[in-house]
Amino acid sequence: MKARRKEELMGYLFLVPYLLLFILFVIIPVLVSAWLSVVQLDLTNASKSAFIGAQNFTDALKDDFFWQATGATGRFALLMVPSVLVLGTAMALGMNRMSQGRDMVRALVYMPSMLNVAATGILWQWFFNNEFGLFNYTIRKAGGTPIPWLTDANMAMPSVVLMSLWWTVGGTSVVVLTALQQIPKMYFEAASLDGANGRHIFFRIMIPLLKPVLLFVFVTTTIASFQMFGQAAILTGGGPTFATRGVVQYMFETAFNGYRFGYGAAISWLLFAAILVFSTIQARVLKSQVEG
Amino acid sequence: MSKLRGSFNIHALVLGVLVLVLATGVIRWSMLGGGIGSKKTRLAFWNGFTGPDGVVMLKIIEDFNRENPDVEVAMQRIPWATYYNKLTVAGSDGRGPEIFVVHTDALPRIRRAGFVADISDLYEGPDAIDVDDFDRVVVDQVQFGGHLEGVPLDIHPQGAFLNKQMLKQAGFVDANGDPRAPKDRREMLDFIGKATLEPSGELKDKQWAFAFTYWGANFRSLLPQFGGRYLDENGNAALDSEPNLKALEFLADIAKNKQAPPADNGLGWFGFRTKRVAMVWDGVFMLGDLTRLNDFEYLGAPIPQIGDRPGTLANSHVLCVNKSVSETEREASGRFLKYLSDHSLEWASAGQVPARKSVRANPEFAKMPVQFAFAQQIPTMMYPPRTPVIFEFMLELDRAVERVVRGQIGPKEALAEANKNAQAVIERDRREYPASYAGAEANQ
């Protein structure tokens, strides 16, 4: 018993360095942000902060910019999440069928995920550039009409999603491929012997067995989409006319450019609430399907 | 053997820790000015000069440190994107640098944090900086309630950058055959007509005469030309005035008539430096980017007079001192500020216009053609509005301009909406921070 307690204690001791950092950089900032959300606090007048209860939250709900940013975030998530799931799964299926060079292809498709968002954004800014960009140059060469990738309010968000897909879908496909390779081959062999065709195998064997992984990808991609910031901030600056400015960018600009820390904190808590609600619903729905 | 190894490891560990503690102590001691006979006053100088301008500034500081052995100025460069956050947090908490740079438009907001010192005394006395050596409009930017809170180091007006080759091709040459810039509305439109080319229909051959750089700033360059303004006499938003409308209508027509490519992030400047655009309007500080290019002949000129008078927008880097410095640090800070101001001709080589008239009168300044040309606009330039809510105010204005140049909304409607929103921001700030708008705290 004594030895076991000592072992437990050792376990906690190993956790201490991480816990200290976790408390310092996560728990305390979360608590501070909760406090900030109920005060009126301007960074240039921090000594004169005042408790104002839920006013920051009610102000946000009446703020056109907040709803515009929420709409932009929603549009991004709606385009991004299904695209990542479909494309990531399709790429994984393709790689799974490869008999040669799979490792090389897997490394190549994963490579963009290793770039940081700044490098990716700047690179794609030149691809998308209206007059001098690679895409429109190629389109013109082929005799087509140039596309206003980033200058048209309706085109800008799909462009941001396109860049985000290039950046992240390789990572997703590698995760799904790993899950695919975990499925015992005998299932496929047995299904073939029973006369199942490719469509049957995909929908009756692969998809049900991939559901836990797809659930994971679905939830994490949704959360990441709700937190979209760097891609739009670098590629479009949130434009044109705020068409791609998401909630996180608006929160950042409010707090760190406008110095309204209380209001910015309230926006971040509203975003947290939205993520929590969506993630819970997704997890419950998909979990019931996985278990069912 | 095993016991010996364990004992050795513990001794090695203890020794290692002792060495580390000692080394840290020595480094800390030396940083705090330790050492026999060391009586240096150490000053931290924060700014956002992270480009080639930082190299020029570092050279001036090294010279100062050499000529003033009792003072050690250490420069900390922070990208402008995060500079003001860090400065405000550090300054509000009493941990700010002794000396720091603030743009004139950010000064009303930063000073509200309460750590910007009144340095009127630096302008007093026989060896002081002469306040009359600055243009009145420049001094006004650092004057609050009768006292001065900074030393303007430079002026960075927006002006026209032009491709010499394309000017010649369009026939814009003077009597000597040298390329010259379009001077007024008629010439500007004439130039656009002549220098916008698409000879073979292929993109690589396409040439635009003019492109927007940052459309909000391009619009603000035209405001003074029409007698426009941001705020009225009572500090209320005045964005929807008739002169502002006329300035915006000009840019709206340029966009509507496709006399410039669609406004795109970074497009204008990129097009200019790759010889696809003949003329852009941008800040004098962009010169640093051009000087790195080989085989590219350009000239700088005032913004063409589109309205009924010349004019452009401007901003300045202002040198400020922290309120919490000791008397010794303050004296040393004053000496450093004066040194920088006196050496602002060197600073001008980084792509700036010196704020002091006497420095601009130096024949050496005339040898900096772009800076010299941009400096001709000083008598008619207009600074951004003095308001603590500058970020939100400008966001409203810039959004209005963007919507207009993209053809989403008419100029009148856009300015009316921007004015309403900007006024709401001002009123909210007045409610929340009334002291910023009254008595000695007031910005006006």
Question: What's this model, at a glance?
Answer:
The complex is a heterodimer of chains A (292) and B (444). Chain A is an all-alpha fold and 292 residues long. Chain A is 76% helix and 1% strand.
What attributes does this structure have?
heterodimer, A: 292 residues, mainly alpha, MetI-like fold, two-stranded antiparallel ribbon, 12 helices, 76% helix, B: 444 residues, alpha/beta, D-Maltodextrin-Binding Protein, domain 2, 2 domains, five-stranded mixed β-sheet, 18 helices
Describe the structure.
The complex is a heterodimer of chains A (292) and B (444). With 292 residues, chain A is mainly α. Chain A has one domain: MetI-like fold. Chain A contains twelve helices and two strands, in the order αββααααααααααα. Chain A has a two-stranded antiparallel ribbon. In chain A, helix 4 runs antiparallel to helix 7. The two termini of chain A are 41 Å apart. With 444 residues, chain B is of the alpha/beta class. In chain B, strand 1, helix 2 and strand 2 form a beta-alpha-beta unit. The N and C termini of chain B lie far apart (81 Å). In chain B, helix 17 runs antiparallel to helix 18. Chain B is globular, with a radius of gyration of 26 Å. In chain B, the strands form five sheets. A five-stranded mixed β-sheet of chain B has the order 2-1-3-13-6, with helices on both faces. In chain B, strands 9-10-8-11 form a four-stranded mixed β-sheet. In chain B, strands 4-5 form a two-stranded antiparallel sheet. Chain B folds into two domains: 181 residues, D-Maltodextrin-Binding Protein, domain 2, CATH 3.40.190; 211 residues, 3-Layer(aba) Sandwich (D-Maltodextrin-Binding Protein, domain 2). At the A-B interface, helix 6 and helix 11 of A face helix 3, helix 10 and helix 17 of B.
